[in-house]
Amino acid sequence: MPFISMTLARSHLRDPGDDDPYMQLLIDAAEEAAMDYINRRVYPDAVAMQAAVASGEAGAFPMVATSAIKSACLLILGHLYANREDVVVGTISTEMPRGSQALLTPYRVGWGV
Asked: How far is CA 89 from CA 57, 83, 86, 95, in A?
């Protein structure tokens, strides 16, 4: 169940004219990337999380989406929306600090090796 609404995504991207299926694809990808980074499943509210726990789909450390997690997802969404190709030719590039990682890292579990 998505925790970033289409309305919030469009507001963050300053009302893009793309169609809903494409926007939903980007929202889903941003949320999935965030959850993969923190190694946790994230739910829009406690009711959705409890339903996932009851059905056995929540994993070991489920949580309700916080403002920081939503903000990180919006940053990832903005990156996916602005950079639609793997390679950009003819531009000067500078790596931006990963604000999404800074927002997500406090919630990360199972760091691994």
From this structure: 42, 12, 10, 15
